[in-house]
Amino acid sequence: MPLRKGRTKQILDSSIDSALLAVEVYNKPRTPFRVENYISLMIIAWTRLFHAYFHHTKGDVFYYKKGNSNRYKRIDGEKKAWSLKDCMVEYKRLGERLDESVEANLSFFIKFRNKIEHRHISEEDIGLEIFGECQSLLYNYENVLVQMFGEEYALNENLAFSLQFSSMRTKEQQIASKKMLSRDIKEIREFIEKYRSELKENVFNSQEYSIRLIQIPRILNNPQKNVPAIEFVNWSNLSDEDKKKYDKLNALIKNKIVRVETINPGKLKAGDVVHNVSKKTPLVNFNHYDNRCLYYLFSVRPVNKENKDPFETNTKYCHYDEVHQDYVYRDSWVDFIVKIIKQNKISRTSWKEKFKKEEKLNIEGFE
């Protein structure tokens, strides 16, 4: 479906340019914020891809002000366009459909971008952790691009994986280990592990969610100069015999990801928190309202009036249970509350007053 010059083609071209720039950034190892920039640029590419599709099929996609469908919402004078998440919802509403694994990959990066947006991390800390998801983000983009606009818009470029050194100096290893213990990195790793653990098995193992590569030296009896050193094989094109051989090899070297069938092991409901705190601080008649005040003051989890992403929790103390659409707490939250009560770091009267005034406290100053 070649497009003539116009608004749709302009949006689509900017989408493709953003994807190609993302590839260029990712493939330059010394580029600052390489992984973060790759993710941001690919989110832009995906968003503009949907905008181009909608503009071609239904017209502009902007937010309207509530109560007045003829007036647009504006930011700094510019019309506010639909976000990627909104585009995915609208695409489904129109009867179109993204593959379940593609949707899971996109949802991962939308949430992951929000996680890292206000954190200072090094791509070396987390880049390898999400390498497969990054590969699939581009792989899926090109597939959907072709699906929407035709083969003539295929990128014809590949996201080559960066070569990694097999070893690092001992001093560098120590520095890296310390950095991995930082709170930001720990929270991000916990988010990644939690997101993956909640995926269906078929989605988690799909190439559309995360491309997994095995690098094996290629040994030929009759080597030729024009044979590539690395070959990428499409899983769906393999024979059953080759798949069995791959599974044997994968069993030896696959990443150690423990997938436990137990749901929320060791987690507490709000009632359990109230009961345990009351048991350890019998002189304080601790109740659900007190718990609500404290998790709001210390930004442990959102409350209804904040209208935030429910996953925006302090994972050291609390997690959002997507299946049951509620929150579960860790023993560390009970220990924290008991500590501030016994050490008189904040009085009950004070936390109630601050909650009414919608104040916030830095939890690090109380830990």
3D architecture notes:
- This protein has helices at residues 7-26, 34-57, 84-93, 100-116, 123-126, 131-149, 170-180, 183-197, 201-204, 240-253, 270-280, 288-297, 331-342, 348-356; strands at 64-65, 68-72, 74-75, 78-79, 318-321, 326-329.
- The chain is built from 14 helices and six strands.
- The chain has two domains: 7-253, no CATH class; 270-365, no CATH class.
- α1 (7-26) runs antiparallel to α2, α2 (34-57) runs parallel beside α3 (84-93) and α12 (288-297) crosses α14 (348-356).
- The radius of gyration is 25 Å and the shape is elongated.
- The chain has a two-stranded antiparallel ribbon.
Return Rg in Å. Answer: 25 Å
What amount of the residues lies in strands? 5-15%
The beta-strand count equals: 6
| Number of helices, counting only DSSP H or I runs of 4 residues or more | 14
SSE series: HHEEEEHHHHHHHHHHEEHH
Straight-line distance between termini:
59 Å
* Mean pLDDT metric: 75
Count of the domains: 2
What fraction, in percent, of the residue positions are helical? 40-55%
**Low-pLDDT windows of residues:** 63-67, 161-181, 252-262
Structural class: mainly alpha
With strands numbered from the N-terminus, the spatial order across the biggest sheet is 1-2
Largest sheet: 2 strands, antiparallel
Shape, please? Answer: elongated
